[in-house]
């Protein structure tokens, strides 16, 4: 299902033995636009400490109760590695975090989540020892590509022929935990209209200037199917969006990629 990240903010996180806290924001990978972590306000039981929860841990979403169930205990979370969210994440910190929970490195394979397109059910191979994990952590590069959805909200959107609006939100796939669209508010040019732009159409992002550059003209964007927040995003709507832009849809690209790597035996 496709939904806005803001629809999940405030959801309670339910461990196997109690509540952990509430979802605060998301960190996504700026290369693949996959959501790698949720930040959780733990409340009083951890002294207000913020903790990270990986989509690897999520086993069920209760939309009516506004709750995410995770396959973790409170003790596991309490003893998890501290990550300072006020400084850029390092790959070593990520490796230590993933190794602690027994999750695979998402950068260690051909798919969105390393060895698969979805995080559910993936785990570190049983033959990986703690010593082996420690060695892998030491060898990781220092670069990480994580960005906060809260920080990127408000970035200006630059079309091929001028500015068209700003980032107003993110639409993600709750199975793949992938950001499928950036919500663009165009009210300064076309009052009241919002549109969706796929991360695949982004040519570059200037993190220093807070700008997102897309390879589309303002006129093309102006005439695209309107995004209405109160309406569900159906596959029919998505198909019309991709046909308008003349771009191949992500589900065909992913199916082709999976077929190609399956033939290679990856």
Which secondary structure elements does this structure contain, and how are they paired or packed?
Elements lengths: L1 E3 L7 E4 L2 E12 L5 E7 L8 E4 L4 E5 L4 E4 L3 H5 L12 H11 L28 H10 L6 E3 H4 L3 E4 L2 E12 L4 E8 L8 E4 L4 E5 L4 E4 L3 H5 L12 H11 L4 H15 L2
Parallel strand pairs: 2-7, 9-14
Antiparallel strand pairs: 1-10, 2-3, 3-4, 3-8, 4-5, 6-7, 9-10, 10-11, 11-12, 13-14
Helix pairs in contact: 2-3
Task: Describe the overall structure.
This protein has 266 residues and is α+β, with helices and mostly antiparallel strands. It folds into two domains: 2-147, PRC-barrel domain (SH3 type barrels); 153-253, Photosynthetic Reaction Center, subunit H, domain 2 (Photosynthetic Reaction Center, Chain H, domain 2). It has seven helices and 14 strands. It has helices at 74-78, 91-101, 130-139, 149-152, 218-222, 235-245, 250-264; strands at residues 2-4, 12-15, 18-29, 35-41, 50-53, 58-62, 67-70, 146-148, 156-159, 162-173, 178-185, 194-197, 202-206, 211-214. Strands 1, 9, 10, 11, 12, 13 and 14 form a seven-stranded mixed sheet that branches. Mean pLDDT is 87; it is low at 124-128.
């Amino acid at each position: 299902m496709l939904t806005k990240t803001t629809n999940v903010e405030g959801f309670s996180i339910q461990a196997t033995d109690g509540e952990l806290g509430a979802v605060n924001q998301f960190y996504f990978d700026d290369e693949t636009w996959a959501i790698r972590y949720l930040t959780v306000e733990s409340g009083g039981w951890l002294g207000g400490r913020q903790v990270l929860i990986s989509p690897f841990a999520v086993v069920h979403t209760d939309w009516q109760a506004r709750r995410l169930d995770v396959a973790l205990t409170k003790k596991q979370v309490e003893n998890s590695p501290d990550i300072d969210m006020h400084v850029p994440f390092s790959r070593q910190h990520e490796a230590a975090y993933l190794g602690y929970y027994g999750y695979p490195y998402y950068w260690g394979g051909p798919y969105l989540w390393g060895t698969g397109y979805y995080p559910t059910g993936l785990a570190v191979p049983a033959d990986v020892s703690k010593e082996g994990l420690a060695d892998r952590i030491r060898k990781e590069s220092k670069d990480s590509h994580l960005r906060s959805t809260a920080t990127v909200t408000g970035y200006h959107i630059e079309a091929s022929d001028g500015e068209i609006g700003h980032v107003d939100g993110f639409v993600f796939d709750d199975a793949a935990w992938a950001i499928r669209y950036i919500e663009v508010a165009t009210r300064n040019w076309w009052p009241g209209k919002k549109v969706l732009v796929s991360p695949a159409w982004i040519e570059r992002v200037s993190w220093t200037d807070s700008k997102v550059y897309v390879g589309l003209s303002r006129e093309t964007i102006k005439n695209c199917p309107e995004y209405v927040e109160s309406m569900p995003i159906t596959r029919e709507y998505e198909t019309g969006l991709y046909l308008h832009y003349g771009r191949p849809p992500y589900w065909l690209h992913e199916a082709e990629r999976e077929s190609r790597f399956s033939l290679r035996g990856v």
